[in-house]
Amino acid sequence: MERNQQELYEYARKRVKQKKRVYFHFILFFVGSIFLYIINKLLKVDPEQDWYLWAITGWGFLFVLHFIKVFVTESFINKKWEQEQIEKLVARQERKIAQLEKKIETTENGQ
Question: Which of 1, 18, 34, 80 has the least CB density, counted as fewest CB within 10 Å?
Fold first, then answer.
C-alpha cells in the first residue's frame, strides 16, 4: 500500500506543478497583452524607430513580469498552498480507489 501512496503523491505533485504553470502563463499573457496595448495605442510606437525603445519596453515587460511573479503569485501559490493541493488530490484519489475496491468486492461476492 505504501507504493500506491507514493504514486498518488507523485501524481498530485505533478498536478500542482501544472496548476502553478497555468497561473504563471495566465499572468504572462495578461501582462503581455497590457504591454502590447500600451505600445500600440498609447505610445504609438512606429516600427521604424530605434531599437533601444524596443529593448527598454522588453526589459520593462520582464521586470513587471518578475515583480508580479515574486510579489503576487508567490503570495498565494506558496509551499503551504502546494501542500494543501497535494492533500486534496491524494484524498480524492483515495476515495475513488476505495469506491472502486468496494465495487470490485461487491461484484466478486455477487458472482
Answer: 1
